[in-house]
Amino acid sequence: MKQALIIIDIQEAFFLDSQQNLWNDETIIKNINTVITWARHNEVPIIFIQHTEANDVDFAMGQPGWELYHGLLRQAQDKVIQKTTWDAFYQTDLAQYLNEQHIDQLIFAGAQTEFCLDTTIRSAFSHGYHHNILVEDAHSTLHSQVLAAPQIIQHHESVWRNRFVKIQPVEEFPNAH
After folding, report:
1. What does the pLDDT read at residue 81?
2. Could you give the angle at the alpha carbon of 96 between the alpha carbons of 92 and 97, nearest 5°?
3. pLDDT tens digit string along 112-146?
4. CB of 78 closer than 8 Å to CB of 48
5. In this structure, are residues 34 and 176 in contact, taking their beta carbons and an 8 Å threshold?
6. Which pLDDT does position 17 carry in this prediction?
7. DSSP string, the chain
8. Which residue ranges in the chain fall short of pLDDT 50?
9. Could you give the CA distance from residue 146 to residue 87 in angstroms, rounded to a whole number?
10. Which strand ranges, in their side-by-side order, compose the sheet holding 165-169?
11. 109: which strand partners?
12. Are strands 105-111 and 3-8 parallel, antiparallel or unpaired?
């Protein structure tokens, strides 16, 4: 299967205010960068999804929080797709790009677990991608008023596991180090 790595919404907004940082952020970034290194070594296309929302100062185009996180191992040849909803497929060229690249399997990482990651994982399944992978400990969220971030992550992984994605530990990406 031809794969693509999709990294969703790892943007500066999640790192500008220590009170609003993604849960377990240092580990998340380290693991995402490990999988980026694996993808480059294996010539797997890397796609960065960038949330853009005019009505949200953190994610408004051109604002400091809108930029992709500076700590990511991003290169000029990596594809960047901007989206305006929680679904990276909705009104973007993601589906067309994946089709043009003959991609069969998507590997997911990113934020926020219960919003854009969840919506895009489910949408990918609806778009015919039925053998996808989620990199364990390479996605995160913020604490909510109802649940702590680890509970949100655990809940979503239990729903997704072997339905929408296979959850794969970062250590299972060979040649990543």
Report:
1. 98
2. 95
3. 999 999 999 999 999 999 999 999 999 999 999 99
4. yes
5. yes
6. 82
7. --EEEEEE--BGGGTSSGGGPPTTHHHHHHHHHHHHHHHHHTT--EEEEEE--TT-GGGSTTSGGGSBPTTS---TTSEEEEESSS-TTTTSSHHHHHHHTT--EEEEEEE-IIIIIHHHHHHHHHTT--SEEEEEEEEE----SSS-HHHHHHHHHHHHBTTTEEEEEGGGSTT--
8. none
9. 23
10. 79-83, 46-51, 3-8, 105-111, 132-140, 165-169
11. 7
12. parallel
Identity of residue 169: P
Tokens of 159: 């729903």
Closest CA to 92 of 69, 120, 128, 61: 120
Beta-carbon contacts of residue 120 (< 8 Å; ≥ 6 apart): 6, 8, 49, 86, 87, 88, 89, 108
The token duo for 33 is 């960068």
- Alpha-carbon distance values, 155 to 60, 92, 101, 121, 151 (Å): 30, 28, 33, 15, 6
Per-residue model confidence as pLDDT tens digits over 78-90: 999 999 999 999 9
